[in-house]
Write a structure and sequence with these properties.
about 475 residues; about 15% strand; binds ligand F0G; alpha/beta; 15 strands; four-stranded parallel sheet
């Protein structure tokens, strides 16, 4: 039996990428410390000139059918890079030339579930969830982190860093530790969940809780990376975006390349919507699919700069002071708004905002289907309900929600919700009364068989 890969098998196939500015189009092979265009300061994106062979797009010289069967065959491989649901698709990723630099925790390979009762509540026939919370550190960030952290390792960096609402920091800290690099985390003090903070600590990050919000943390980090050789791992890093594309590839592979009508994503810093959209467009260009799904982005009402930009028809994003209990998306000045806007236009998707009460209800409903997610992920279901009411999503169309984080990321939110405390003393207390049927507070009773039996009977009657 062969267990270990041979040296030649462990080589990564080349997928040479270059970087291009999304505004002025300048092309380069290396990025500045802050991953901004050296000429105009806008964001960069990766592209692959060598996909084009004699006028046809063929990554690694392979056509669509050959790519599909190669990716499927890799599912049986014992190589760590094949067991990763990210590196399995490496023909569509930037190459790490030295395979020893690849840092993988077997990310990706996340499940797609159907959501029968959520489908009924939203009014659609076919509703699915791609659960990115089932990644190694419990969020979608791992799919991008494996790629970008591997680039940091290959570049010989000792330190990596990010500003975060919690999930990026948890993921970065894990991949840095795994790759024997040090990590610096900047998080807004008091505004991230304990679950996420504790992950960063356990994975040995130097964790600074700054008395500011996410946008303030980002501003400070941008200056730090100018002064120190620290590798920036926020989603302005185009290699993270490339890794996050793979959730879209996996999703379509799951449906045997049959494209769903709608994909719905939460919007925070807007890296993930940009990544998924880029993947859908690339897959169509490569002939892997015949069309793209409409990709819609949902924000919390209190953190809605993209919604405002689109509704008010402005050309420039105006930052907002963000406030939402869905702390993962408490972001008022999203870095990737131009990329996200382009994806909305290219796929015909919509933007929508949802209230705090709508988020809480949607989260409980997803839990009721036995799936569960963190609050930021639940905006997708809340947003879907609105899109159905507006006729933007038709009942007969197929819909996929991107659930971005695991239920256990924010147990405090869930406990407060079920105890009925989440909105007490807030402006939402009155509206929150509609949540009562979804609340299941723990019941404290005497330790006797009779009381437990009585509780059971009461619960049965209440159904
Ligand atoms: N859902 C979850 C659970 C998140 O953690 C985030 C972002 C998003 C959605 C939004 O994704 O920023 O790509 O639009 N979390 C970042 C962080 C900002 O620092 O963990 P996005």
């Amino acid at each position: 039996m062969k267990v270990k890969p041979t040296a030649s098998e462990s080589q990564l196939e080349p997928a040479a990428s270059r970087l291009r500015c999304i505004s002025c189009g300048s092309v380069s092979d290396s990025a500045s410390q802050n991953f901004r265009c050296r000429r105009c300061g806008d964001l960069l994106e990766a592209f692959y000139p060598n996909w084009n062979i004699e006028g046809k797009l063929r990554p690694a010289g392979l056509d669509a059918a050959a790519l599909k069967s190669l990716w499927r065959a890799r599912r049986k491989s014992l190589l760590p890079i094949d067991q990763s649901g990210v590196w399995r698709f490496r023909e569509l990723l930037p190459s790490v030339t030295d395979s020893a630099s690849v840092i993988t925790l077997h990310e990706g390979n996340t499940p797609v579930y159907d959501l029968p009762s959520c489908a009924r509540s939203a009014g659609v026939d076919r509703l699915f969830a791609k659960h990115q919370g089932m990644n190694p550190t419990g969020s979608f960030k791992d799919t991008g982190m494996t790629v970008a952290a591997s680039f940091a390792k290959q570049g010989g960096f000792r330190w990596v860093a990010c500003a975060s609402t919690g999930n990026t920091s948890a993921s970065m800290a894990a991949y840095a530790a795994r790759g024997a690099m040090r990590s610096l985390v900047l998080i807004p003090e008091g505004k991230i969940s304990w679950g996420k903070l504790s992950q960063a600590l356990d994975y040995a990050a130097v964790t600074c809780q700054l008395r500011t919000d996410f946008d303030g943390c980002m501003g400070i980090l941008n200056e730090v990376v100018e002064r120190m050789p620290v590798y920036l791992l926020n989603s302005v890093n185009p290699y993270r975006v490339e890794g996050q594309k793979t959730a879209a590839i996996e999703l379509l592979e799951h449906f045997d390349w049959d494209v769903p009508d709608h994909v719905i994503v939460p919007g925070g810093n807007l890296g993930n919507s940009s990544a998924l959209g880029k993947a859908f467009l690339e897959m169509k260009d490569l002939g892997l699919t015949s069309r793209v799904p409409k990709l819609s982005i949902i924000q919390a009402e209190g953190a809605n700069p993209l919604v405002r930009l689109v509704r008010e028809g402005r050309k420039q994003l105006r930052a907002v002071e963000a406030e939402t209990m869905a702390t993962a998306i408490r972001i008022g000045n999203p870095a990737s708004w131009k990329k996200a806007l382009r994806i909305l236009e290219a796929t015909g998707g919509s933007v929508e905002e949802v209230s705090e009460v709508e988020i809480a209800q949607a989260k409980a409903e997803i839990g009721g289907d036995g799936i569960g997610c963190e609050p930021a992920s639940a905006v997708t279901l809340a947003g879907l309900k609105k899109l159905v009411k507006q006729g933007i999503v038709k009942p007969s169309e197929s819909v996929v929600l991107l659930l971005t984080g695991h239920l256990l990321k924010d147990p405090e939110f869930t406990l407060k919700f079920h105890r009925g405390d989440l909105f007490s003393g807030t402006q939402y207390a009155e509206d929150a009364k509609i949540l009562a049927p979804h609340q299941r507070a723990p019941i404290i009773v005497d330790a006797s068989v009779d009381t437990v039996m009585k509780t059971l009977e009461q619960a049965e009657k209440a159904e």
